[in-house]
Amino acid sequence: xxxxxxxxxxxxxxxxxxxxxxxxxxxxxxxxxxxxxxxxxxxxxxxxxxxxxxxxxxxxxxxxxxxxxxxxxxxxxxxxxxxxxxxxxxxxxxxxxxxxxxxxxxxxxxxxxxxxxxxxxxxxxxxxxxxxxxxxxxxxxxxxxxxxxxxxxxxxxxxxxxxxxxxxxxxxxxxxxxxxxxxxxxxxxxxxxxxxxxxxxxxxxxxxxxxxxxxxxxxxxxxxxxxxxxxxxxxxxxxxxxxxxxxxxxxxxxxxxxxxxxxxx
Length: 265
Hints:
The chain is an alpha/beta fold. The chain is built from twelve helices and nine strands. The two termini are 34 Å apart.
């Protein structure tokens, strides 16, 4: 069986494509496992500087597989204690993997992103949407709650009031509404989506890789630590950055008016 998540690399940019279009890229076990494994692979490869995440076919991700939920398939069956454990050791590995992803991640949202699929977009740092994208925090429509960390992620993406509206109504919002919410930073035509994502990835990837990884870590930590703590972390990381070869090369290239050449290790 082909990989549930395709891994393609061009230069310093990796594109991850959820490749189960026949089930609208539902976050079944094989897709979650593929995403988690590829996050680990990327962190181990200093040559990767940016990641693009998208879906094959017409959907970004439909979230949970409704047929499995309806049939109480293995991942949704069992006692409450067993189900809790399945969430902890199953889908919840995905937000932890993306939260620990060291390089910037761009979600190229090509179509509907529903439930856990919507939350998956918020696990990325930047979101670009096709005009065909739809977003819905649909759990409440099924009598469920965001079991994948969405209650923590979504308010940080769109603010508490808007996140509450999305979670309490389960309504669907088109790409233009998502742009107005601040859920996405750009909306483009479907045929322009991957081009726009790659253009942005290219503008990120030309920068010093160590500085990129440290800047991302600081932004992540800034969501949960006190300001004084973040300043202390920033001071320590900046001290390291001053001694990195990347910094010296960036200064030299700027003074010499030439493109910089950064090492990957």
